[in-house]
Amino acid sequence: MSPQEVKSVMSSGLLSFPVTDFDSQGNFNAKSYAERLEWLAPFGATALFAAGGTGEFFSLTAEEYPAIIQTAVNTCKGKVPIIAGAGGPTRFAIQCAQEAERAGAHGILLMPHYMTEASQEGLAAHVEAVCKSVKFGVIIYNRGVSRFTPETVAKLCERNPNLVGFKDGVGDIEAMSAMFLTMGDRLAYLGGLPTAEVYAAAYKALGTPVYSSAVFNFIPKTAIRFYEAVKNDDHATQHHLLKTFFMPYLEIRNRSAGYAVSIVKAGAKIVGHDAGPVRAPLADLKPGEVEELAALIKLVEQ
């Protein structure tokens, strides 16, 4: 898949980030992960992101990363495109990107470099080094310490034809408007705030109709239903699902830092697709919170 084909895929439909399966000892469980992807693939996501943020990329080792991406590519071949997560220090991000390309992934989402702050010049050097290391499409993730100005992105796009997407996880409306108005159709734009459904209608109004759904991991039919409601300006369905599921869901998610991933794994277990525990420094939901989540799932899955 060429970078422009990746851009086209990213320009419509619902995206999702499958959780990464671990066994009781916290090791990658390839069999369970493949079964998860086989279950999710037919539900209609435009692309699946392997080893992304919800997939706990930040806790993966360099040794296990290739196996995760290869499992995803092999399982979903001919069914749904696989975009691999990559990030961290520049040399590690390059290593991940090249491993993903060798495995047959269709592109990468370049996630934040973590920890240290960086100037726009430094961020540009980081992104360009990754883009130059591979031939497939690259999507940058505007989040945390990796926040890009339109001027920086414009220069990067001039020098790197395979930079084809911009995912926003900051939620600054003014900045997102400036990015879209500056770059126009040069990039595909993705909404990437945690529980993106809450912001989906607002992002659509900004020219960003595509977003990634974490809840697709455990209520894929409802996730697609909500996406279709946003696509078709069906405000009644949006408001119903926001009131009955998403807002109470957020109340649980916001009780503890890191629950944005933990609550998704809990949901997967509730619906019969257990992905194992989260890895430290994340912590699993408490039993009472799992019961609350199960009740919410029952409401929308009836």
Number of helices: 12
The average pLDDT value, as a whole number, equals: 96
The structural class is alpha/beta
Low-confidence stretches: none
Radius of gyration: 18 Å
Largest sheet: 8 strands, parallel, barrel
Q: Tell me, what's the shape?
A: globular
Describe the strand arrangement of the main beta sheet, using strand numbers. Answer: 1-2-3-4-5-6-7-8
Helix content: 40-55%
Proportion of residues in extended strands: 5-15%
What pattern of helices and strands is seen along the backbone?
A: HEHEHEHEHEHEHEHEHHHH
Q: What is the terminal separation in angstroms?
A: 39 Å
The strand count comes to 8
Structure description:
The protein is an alpha/beta fold. It is 48% helix and 12% strand. The protein is built from twelve helices and eight strands. The chain has helices at 3-10, 30-40, 65-76, 90-103, 120-133, 150-159, 173-183, 200-205, 220-231, 235-253, 259-270, 287-301; strands at residues 14-16, 47-50, 82-86, 107-110, 137-142, 163-168, 188-191, 210-213. An eight-stranded parallel β-barrel has the order 1-2-3-4-5-6-7-8, surrounded by five helices. The longest helix is centred in the last third of the chain and has 19 residues, at 235-253. It starts with a helix and ends with a helix.
